[in-house]
Structure prediction request, 89 residues.
Amino acid sequence: MTNLPIKKLRSGSLDLAIWENKRKVRDGEEISFKTVSLRRSWKDKEQDIWRDEKLNLRRSDIPKAILLLQKAQEDLFLNEDNNNDGEED
Prediction:
């Protein structure tokens, strides 16, 4: 049986999936917990293939990732002279 995400979201080259996971604890009881995977895809023009990078996060990682991304955004938008990374706004 294939494990499918319970929800998928997409914005441009980023997609996010929410997964429900199960694990047995010491007493044999099964617990359920959710994780998130974030993937960025792009076309490698030299090799003419699609590539991607994937990051898996636990629930407690999400606020930390948001904070780091916000700080990176502040630094990029406030401390650079309108250079972008090749993407349109």
Observations:
- The chain has a mean pLDDT of 89.
- The chain has one helix and four strands.
- The longest strand covers residues 30-44.
